[in-house]
Amino acid sequence: GVCRPLFVGPAHELSGTRSFQQLLSRRSMSCPTARTAAAFAFASVAASTLASVGRSSPLGLPLITGYLVAGAAAGPYVLGMLTHDDCTSLADLINNDAMGFIGFSAGTKFLLSDMEGTIQPTLVLLTALVLVTYGLVGSCFYFAAPYLPLTAGQTPEVQLATSMVIACLAVARSPSSAIALITELGARGAFTTMTLSLTVLTDVIVVVLFAVTMLLVHAIVGDGGGGQPGWVVLASFAAQIAVSVLIGVVLGYAMDWTVRMTAALHAKFRLHGGGSMASTGDRRSISERVACPAAVVLSIQVAIVLAESMLMQLTGFGIFESEQWEEKTWGGTFHQPLIISMVAGFTVANYTPSRLEFLRILHDSSEVIYIAFFTLTGASLQLDVLLVQAPTALFLFALRA
Q: Which of 6, 105, 135, 311 sits 20 to 30 Å CA-CA off 265?
């Protein structure tokens, strides 16, 4: 198969921001080798251990901090367990799998019961967040541009254009990090829903903001554009959102049917006193009719849990992989995979009776997925570029903080 390079952070997480990715080059890589898989498995185990130590330390660090640090240590710039090619070959499989799962999980956080009375405050905060971040980062970066390594030798026009693009990117947030922290802390309620709403809606707004920013950048630099007109980008994105919402609703009800089927299997093969199984169709334990050791029952239960997790991950992976297939086949996409997965999760959580079972499946699968995703993210950090651009990075970090 062919795998694509790793794109992490907001520009990859909301597929509507594909405009960002078009600024980057792509190259084909072979899928992971046995050596790559073994090295990554070792790095993931180390990341899990380090994260647990950091979590139990007096600092109480989030688990994803340990995953990122361990991944960076295993990457090509420190220990070299994972090379650039290793990270690239792993990216397609792990990112598509994780992003679909994260989308399902994000959708379940939007409970209608928690959203009552929070829509207006959310929109006010969203507007303030976008305007303040864009204005503050853009203006401060422009005034500091002559002293930063990234823009020190550029003309004032290029410095202004760069400042506007940087400001636009600074507005974006990371849904994957937000979901990981919410899951780790078990947070829920109106404040959690508002926070996640701001995170996701901000990335939607960034698409519009980026289109407008690029129009202004082309006018300032004077290169005449060269891409699609801004209104075409916005209209295409709106159409993709509409299609994605429709597909997400249908997928949500399909997943509800699947979850109810697996829940019935759980009820059918359930451990009871004496190590027997009970059937929902017969209140007598199966041990009264058929001798069945507890080990067999436990094996069946584990198999059902693994099958649920695999089915969930394969569904999310297929959503994101289909986008890649559309890009290769037709040169563009007709849906936004993260929107589909989020709407599917939202539909299951709010309009079906399978919410609790769905949350159980997500919870059972979350730890392994987060370890793999954030460990790979840490290993893929280009520390050489970060060191060269450290003053610029620290300056932007201070502005956003």
A: 105
pTM: 0.71
* Pick from 262, 274, 264, 272: nearest CA to 303: 262
170 vs 394: CA distance, rounded Å: 13
With beta carbons less than 8 A apart as the criterion, state whether 145 and 218 touch: no
| Torsion region of 352: left, alpha or beta (phi above 0 gives left; psi -120 to 50 gives alpha) | beta
Query: Tokens for 296?
Result: 């067999």
CB 399 within 8 A of CB 140: yes
Which helix H or strand E contains 245, and what residues bound it?
helix 230-268
Closest CA to 214 of 292, 162, 288, 152: 162
Q: What number of CA atoms fall less than 13 Å from residue 224's CA on the CB side?
A: 1
Biggest CA pair distance of the chain: 85
State the amino acid at position 303 in one-letter form.
A
76 secondary structure, DSSP code: T
CA 173 vs. chain centroid, Å, equals: 11
